[in-house]
Amino acid sequence: MIPYLNAAYNLARWMTRNEHDAEDVVQEAYMRAFAAVDGFRSDGNGRAWILAIVRNTCLTWLQRNRLKEVVTATNEELDTKADVCLDPEQILIVTSRTDLFKKALEELPLHYREILILREMEGLSYKAIAQISGIPLGTVMSRLTRARKQLQYHVLGMAGKEVPR
Fold this sequence. Notes:
CATH architecture of the largest domain: Orthogonal Bundle
CATH class of the largest domain: Mainly Alpha
Distance between the termini: 45 Å
Number of domains: 2
CATH topology of the largest domain: Arc Repressor Mutant, subunit A
Strand content: under 5%
CATH superfamily of the largest domain: Winged helix-like DNA-binding domain superfamily/Winged helix DNA-binding domain
Largest sheet: none
Shape: globular
Number of helices: 10
């Protein structure tokens, strides 16, 4: 599982929003994985298996330490913000500023942030994300679409750009 350590840390870092907390979570996740290694099938996807453990460890850690993080936005809030249409040129200009992008990503609800990290930064398939998250494939696709729109909404808002309605 050592080859997946960077991916595990990356996921934990974005979920916890803190480098030190992410290190703690990854350490705990790897200890859990080591204890459960007998349950891992050698023909299985090791990356998906360890990232599922990291995700679950993050969620447990967040519940204990930051209960408000686990609370999700209502569907009404999500629908109003998800209906944003953006000009690709504006997005390219705005997202070139890394600090702005990172801040926008950190402001996303946890369930959107984790889907974006797994897909866009870790390059996992929808199927692997569904397996890691324990949600149906269709839910992965719809959350990813909404997460991308939410991210665009936040980036434009932070850049002082008018968000099209």
